[in-house]
Structure formats: C-alpha cells, structure tokens
Amino acid sequence: MKIRGTVRPKGSAPKRSRLQASACVAFALCATSAGAQVQIAPQVEGGSQVQLYGLVGTYIDSLKRSDMAQSQVQMGSGGLTTSFWGIRGKEDLGGGVSAIFALESFFQPNTGAQGRSASDPYWSRNAYVGFTGAFGRLTFGRQTNPTYVAMQAVNPFGSSVVFSPLVVQTFVTSYGGSIIGDTVWNNTAQYTSPSYAGIGATVIYGLGGVAGSPGIGNLGLHLSYTGGALTAVLSAQRVRFTQVGPVGAQYAYLAGAAYDFKIVKLFGAAVITSNVSMPIGTHTYEAGLSVPFSPADFLLAEYARTRRSGPVDNSLRHTASIAYDHFLSKRTDIYAVYSLDQLSGHPIGNTYGVGIRHTF
C-alpha cells in the first residue's frame, strides 16, 4: 500500500497539508489492519512519498535439534522469512538528492507480540534516516547487518533464521551461532555506493557509545557483484563485545556466490570467525540449490557444516534442509520443510514443518 504526495500547489496552506497527510496515514494504518487494500494520495509538501509494507508468516513444526532430548511441537512466527511491518518515505530535496527514512518492526503473528522476543526494541528491524542520490546512499540509525544481507544472496533459504543451515549455524544461538552479535546493529552510520559494472560496496560503522573508548564500535566492509546469472559477495566485519576483563573482539569473514543455470540455481559460501581476545574460531562451509519446477513451484535444498576450534570446544555440526515452496499468488506462498541436524557427540535430530507467508 502506498501513500503518495505531490508538490504543494502555490498558495495552499502548509498547516492544512500536514493535517491532511497525518489523517491519511492514520486512515491507511486502520484500513490495513482491517485487511483493506488502500491507495491514498494526499497533498504533501516537497513531493514526499510514504509507504506501508510488510510480511506476515507463520509455521508449525516438530522441532528436534541434535542436542535436544525430545522433539517439540510448536507454532512459530516467521519461518522462511521473519514477520515484520514497516513505514518508509522519501522526499525530493532537489539536485538529484532525496531524504529517506524507514521504520520497521518485527512481530510474532502466533501470539501478537511485538519483536522477535521481549528484548527487542519497538523498531527492531530497521530505524534509520538519511540521504540518497547519484553519490550513493548514506543512512544513520539501527540497521540490518550487511553481512546478514549478503548471506541471504548465497543460500536458497534466504534470510530464514529457522530453516537455513547457513544462517542458523552462524547467527542463531541455539545452533551455536558462530558470529557474535545480532542481525541488526544499533547506532550505525552506513554508506552504500552506486553500482559500477555490477559491483557495489557498503561500509558500516557502529558507534560504541562508551565514554573514553572511541574504538569500541562495530565495523563492516562489504562488496557484492551482480551480473547476468552470477551473484557474488565478500564481507568482513569486526564486532567488539564486553566480557569479564577487557573488551573483546571477533572478526568474521564471508565469501559466497550463486549461479543461475535456469534449470537449477547453485549456491555456495564459506564463513570464518576468529576471536582476538580468546584462542577460538570457527569454519563454516555451505552448499545449496534451488530447482524451479514451474514459475510457482520450487525445490530448495541446503547443507552446512561448522567446525569449532579452541581449548575447550572442538565440535562439528552438520545441518541440512530440504523444502518444497508453492506460490499461490505473487504475494502468498505455502511450503513444507524437513531439516536434519547432528552435533558431534549427539544423535541426529529431525525437524518437520509447514508454513505460509504473505507480503503486503
């Protein structure tokens, strides 16, 4: 649903325009909650545009990781994609430059709760403001970690923190996630370059906010290439974290690619982490494929393994998922998933699930 504005006619009342815009946004929110499809065009100064959008998904599965004693039947929020809703806007400032903002929040449709968990802030997915133009894009606020964004391009399950073996082994704590930190970073300044011959770059820095420690913030450097059937990514990030004693730091590196042969799309990636303050690290390798049986039907398969190295933990974890995804329309799909998980020293765990997601 989009709320569009046009340049205010000469002589119109600014106060009235602002009131009209506010009323239309409020009406749009109410209409959306009632399941309505609404297109509204208020008179807004500066040619600004505001859009309401999101995704609602839920799934039911019988979950059993390798380190679980018994399986757990549950209804979860998200599944292939974590549920969220958002408001974003853009205003033309002239000279090819626009002001932009986005406010996005995760939520749990199975319980109605806000956020992924009780610890999430209200605008948990993104909350930033900035500028965009021929120079690229510069934004400030709470923003999605570009390493996580890059990872979505090189595995067939995309952003799924439930079913993607690559994502769960690197970002999900219950699977021993190797990368320290969240998929979203606070207090960040991010610059994304324009694309040159398919190559793009992103730099992100997170201010630590700790007095006397200007270097405590997170840092990420990212490159991507998209050309024809090939997609490739390269990411490096440093995350600083507090612990007993001095501030620690982890370095994480991601390299991956995907190639679309039309009859099958292949994926591959590698993730390496190392902790500066402690002699521990991880090596993760992933391979996957997506097979389009028709424009509406896809087979997804992925495997990942993570080896830990350190004085205490030298475990090896194998995780694999296979899914069938059927699109009922451009915005609604249903799917069935089977996942296998094995952690060294534990028996194999099997997970079965079905889900639905809808974008708006």
Automatic annotation (TrEMBL):
Residues 26-341 form the Porin domain. It is found in: Cell outer membrane. One of its GO terms (biological process) is monoatomic ion transport. GO terms for molecular function: porin activity. Transmembrane segments: none annotated. The keyword Transferase does not apply. The keyword Ion transport applies. Residues 1-36 form the signal peptide. Keywords: Cell outer membrane, Ion transport, Membrane, Porin, Signal, Transmembrane, Transmembrane beta strand, Transport. Pfam families: Porin_4. It is a multi-pass membrane protein. It comes from the Bacteria. GO terms for cellular component: cell outer membrane; pore complex. Homotrimer. This is Outer membrane protein (Porin). It comes from Caballeronia glebae.
